[in-house]
Amino acid sequence: MAPWGYSKENGPATWHKDCPIANTGVRQSPIDLITTGQTCAKYDSNLKPVIVSYPAFSEATFLNNGHSVQFQPSAGNLSELSGGPLTKKYKFEQFHFHWGNNDSEGSEHRVNGKMYPAELHLVHWNSESPNFSSFQEAVGSNDPHALCVLGFFLKVGAENASLKPITDLLSKVKNAGSSVSFPGKFDLKAVLPETLTDYYTYDGSLTTPPLAECVKWIVFKEPIEVSTAQMEAFRAVDDGHGKPITGNYRPPCPLHTRTVAASFK
Ligand SMILES: NS(=O)(=O)N=C1NCCCN1
Ligand SMILES: [Zn+2]
């Protein structure tokens, strides 16, 4: 089968052919985060702020893999995540983005049906588990919380100086399969809001094949601002078939019996 993607021929509606869990899974991601009514997110006063320890990365690869652009530091990186709903420490693996070809679509998670123009995912794996000792092993582990992904919505506004080193690099990885070694240091901490207190959290999956149901999702309420020019830079990245990636987001999946917790009222 042709590698998966987001076109009519290989997009989310076809992924079940190689990944049956796409249709049979009961904890698939993304979801629509509903804030009022029956199945809405429930405030949980026990939810603490998320704690990140992200020393500036000094060595990383920035890659266009044909379905997103991802920033992956070298194996030695010491960046860690804890707190929030987590009981363990997680190691940073990579970050990547999902976006649309206009400002009314692009995020994977939605809030009361509203999509943002893009969504940033920071991917981590549980580094304290006795059952695996790498990201790839974590994905294949069947552990319900092997991974933790932090999701941040992007909205159009002022230019984001902290993300500029990334958005300025997009033209260098325009072609699918291309990658560059990230020049200099990158301070991911500076991209994030200062306090990581207000978020939704639920048990879900990877939103791309293999769609493994091993992710503790933490999606932050406050969007991060980027400029129109920065959004346009994402929309110029190619998918390997000579076309721009025009919407690398999976539609929302059924909640089934899951509940969503909110760390804020
Ligand atoms: N969009 S997602 O859920 O983070 N999906 C991922 N798939 C494999 C690599 C890490 N992330
Ligand atoms: Zn993602």
Care to describe what's here?
The protein has 265 residues and is mainly beta. It is 8% helix and 28% strand. The chain has four helices and 15 strands. Strands 2, 3, 4, 5, 6, 7, 9, 10, 11, 12, 13, 14 and 15 form a 13-stranded mixed beta sheet that branches. The longest helix has 7 residues. It is globular. 42% of the residues are buried. The model has no long low-confidence stretch (mean pLDDT 97). Bound molecules: N-(tetrahydropyrimidin-2(1H)-ylidene)sulfuric diamide and zinc ion (ZN). The site of zinc ion has 4 residues, from β7.
Reconstruct the topology from this structure.
Blueprint lengths: L20 H4 L7 E2 L8 E2 L6 E4 L6 E5 L4 E5 L6 E4 L6 E10 L10 E2 L6 E9 L8 H5 L7 E10 L7 H4 L11 E3 L17 E6 L10 E6 L3 E3 L1 H7 L26 E2 L3
Parallel strand pairs: 1-8, 2-15, 10-13, 10-14
Antiparallel strand pairs: 3-6, 4-5, 4-11, 5-7, 6-7, 7-9, 9-10, 12-13, 12-15
Bound molecules: N-(tetrahydropyrimidin-2(1H)-ylidene)sulfuric diamide (0VW) and zinc ion.
Features:
binds zinc ion, single chain, mainly beta, binds N-(tetrahydropyrimidin-2(1H)-ylidene)sulfuric diamide, 265 residues, two-stranded parallel sheet, 13-stranded mixed sheet, 4 helices
Strand content: 25-35%
What is the number of strand segments?
Answer: 15
User: Alpha-carbon distance between the termini?
Assistant: 46 Å
Biggest pleated sheet: 13 strands, mixed
* Overall pLDDT confidence: 97
Enzyme class: lyase
Keywords: Lyase, Metal-binding, Zinc
InterPro entries: CA_dom, CA_dom_sf, Carbonic_anhydrase_a-class, Carbonic_anhydrase_a-class_CS
GO cellular component, one term: cytoplasm
